[in-house]
Structure formats: C-alpha cells, structure tokens
Amino acid sequence: MRKVIAAMQMSLDGFIEGPNGEIDWIENWEDSYDLMEQVDTCVLGGGMYPGYEHYWTSILADPKAVLAFTGKAATQGEIDYANFADRTPHVVLSGTLKQVQWKAARIERDVDSLLQLKQRPGKDIYVVGGATLVGSLINAGWIDELRLTVHPVVLGQGKALFKDVERRQRLERVDARAAEGGLVSLIYRTSGALRVAPTGEI
C-alpha cells in the first residue's frame, strides 16, 4: 500500500511560522525532501491552499519575475517544483473553501478520501500541510512517514508544527543528514496506522 508522507519546514524549536506569521527565515521553497520522483498526489488543507496556489502559479506564469511573497525571483529548484505541482493532482481537504482555480487541484470535503487514495495503486502521497491538517492526520494514525527540514533558527514563539497533536507519538528514525546552509534533514517512520477518524477542523 502506498505511503502517506507529511513533509514540512520548521525552526529548531518546532515552529513553522513566527508570532506574526513570519517565514522570512526560510530561504526558498524547493523540494528539500526529495519527494518529487516518489509521489504522484499532493494533499493540503484549505487554510494553506490559496497562498500555495498563488505562489506556484505565479512562478509558472513568469519564472523570472520577482515574487511578492518572497521579494526574490524563483530559484531553479522552485521552478522545477512549480512544474511538478502543475502536472500532479492536488487534493484540498476543506470544509469551507469554495473553489480552486488551479487545474491541478480539486476540493474534497471528507477526510476519508485520503484513505481511499491510499488504497489505490500508485506512488506515495505527499501531505504538504498545513499544521492543522498534519496534526489531525497524525492523531488519526494516517501518516506513515514524517520528513522535516530543520532550519538553524530559534523563533521563541509562533505557530508550532505539532500544536494539534493530542498524545505522545513514538517515531523511528529512518535518516538524518546535514544539508547546505546549516539545515538538517530528518526522516521518521511513525508508530503505526490506527485508522480512526480524525478530529477537529481541517
């Protein structure tokens, strides 16, 4: 059965954003998890999706333009990911989002659709985020693997990646390696799939 892999960028003290939503400490949004060849479906929550769609479609529209989100032009790795995202189906799990513009995306209201995807033939499934969705899926035992890119910065406060995880989780380390710029890449296997219904809003 295909794996469900959640992959996120985080600070050394476990935050994905600063207290005012700052993400300027993330140098770029390239595929630092080595997932593009391994997956054929992306999943993300409705809160994260609008910014995600705008960012990657902006790069597709003009790969050389300065992006409003970062104030910089896209890197080659970001251009590569934008093209990957444009040809890869995206499932947006949301009970409130009304519509998506990107041809690669569709909205699903029922989180059980992720389990249905997992049971179909294909490559692995990439859970892009955000934190609420990832926490809900960890609680439900639906995440098989966590890939984390840890940045050498301490934010002190902000939005914690695991803020919605309800109980202790024991993980098995698969890989840990240093990356360029002081980053650390971590891969963990989760303790098992409980297959219970996720709780809380997606």
Explain what this protein looks like in three dimensions.
The protein is an alpha/beta fold and 202 residues long. The chain has one domain (4-189): Dihydrofolate Reductase, subunit A (3-Layer(aba) Sandwich), CATH 3.40.430. The protein is 21% helix and 27% strand. The protein has four helices and ten strands; from the N terminus they run βββααββαβαββββ. The strands form two sheets. It has an eight-stranded mixed beta sheet with strand order 5-4-3-6-1-7-10-9, covered by helices on one side. A two-stranded antiparallel ribbon has the order 2-8. Helix 1 (49-61) crosses helix 2 (76-87).
Précis, in short:
By secondary structure, the protein is of the alpha/beta class. It has one domain: Dihydrofolate Reductase, subunit A (3-Layer(aba) Sandwich).
Q: CATH top level? A: Alpha Beta
Helix and strand pattern: EEEHHEEHEHEEEE
Number of helices: 4
Radius of gyration: 16 Å
From the structure above, extract its key features:
202 residues; alpha/beta; Dihydrofolate Reductase, subunit A; two-stranded antiparallel ribbon; globular
Task: Furnish the topology, listing elements before pairings.
Blueprint: E1 4-11, E2 15-17, E3 39-45, H1 49-61, H2 76-87, E4 90-93, E5 105-108, H3 112-119, E6 124-129, H4 131-140, E7 145-151, E8 159-160, E9 172-178, E10 184-189
Helix pairs in contact: 1-2
